[in-house]
Amino acid sequence: MLWPLFLLVTAIHAELCQPDAENAFKVRLSIKTALGDKAYAWDINEEYLFRAMVAFSMRKVPKRETTEIAHVLLCNVTQRVSFWFVVTDPSKNHTLPAAEIQSAIRMNRNRINNAFSLSDQTLEFLKIPSTLAPPVDPSVPIWIIIFGVIFCIIIVATTLLILSGIWQSRRKNMEPSEMVDAEDKRENMITVENGIPCDSLDAKGGHINDAFMTEDERLTPL
Ligand SMILES: *[C@@H]1O[C@H](CO)[C@@H](O)[C@H](O)[C@H]1NC(C)=O
Ligand SMILES: *[C@@H]1O[C@H](CO)[C@@H](O)[C@H](O)[C@H]1NC(C)=O
């Protein structure tokens, strides 16, 4: 009678702690690197201490004061020590939000490191950056931002230059004495600016329109 229920409960527990499961965190330890000859073996007692340290950290979080060692589940422990852990609620049928675990671990990082004689580099909580670590190389984004700003300024300045050129040549076009000069300038503009209105080409009444006509006549038979 109780067997199905027992199986269901163990199945739920097995599901809660899994690699890449929701709210699960991976931990990687480099005990040999950190301690050399004085390295200790990672065994079930070390696991118990780790679970106790996580429970201790969680108990300082508001509304999580009742966290017990039994609520911290470890799984997929590997020989070259790495493992996953989750923290469950007292009913043990769902895991606590990752954000709460993250902040709890962060605030107690030094205590946890000291418990295992390890450092931020040799006791890694993947996906939980340590508070002491400097922000990830800020120089690269800043250079990208500066480059973007300069690029925008150049584009805006170029646009303004082109626009002022168009305005200037239009204004000079009104004065007959500088007609030739203006036409020279406008011809330059035409090569630079494709968006020049058609009527300004017509105003020239010159060879450009003829060129288009012949081009059209050549293309129509095809
Ligand atoms: C984690 O452990 C479970 C059960 O021990 C196993 O079925 C699963 O394949 C393991 N996953 C990884 C990624 O090692
Ligand atoms: C899960 O927890 C709820 C209360 O949060 C409880 O009512 C329910 O019975 C629990 N389910 C299992 C399978 O333990």
From TrEMBL:
Keywords: Cell membrane, Glycoprotein, Membrane, Phosphoprotein, Signal, Transmembrane, Transmembrane helix. PROSITE patterns: COLLECTRIN_LIKE (PS52010). It comes from the Eukaryota. Residues 1-19 form the signal peptide. The chain crosses the membrane at residues 142-167. It is found in: Cell membrane. It is a single-pass type I membrane protein. Residues 21-222 form the Collectrin-like domain. The keyword Cell wall biogenesis/degradation does not apply. GO terms for molecular function: protein homodimerization activity; transporter activator activity. GO terms for cellular component: brush border membrane; cytoplasm; extracellular exosome. GO terms for biological process: calcium-ion regulated exocytosis; insulin secretion involved in cellular response to glucose stimulus; positive regulation of L-proline import across plasma membrane; SNARE complex assembly. InterPro entries: Collectrin, Collectrin_dom. This is Collectrin, amino acid transport regulator.
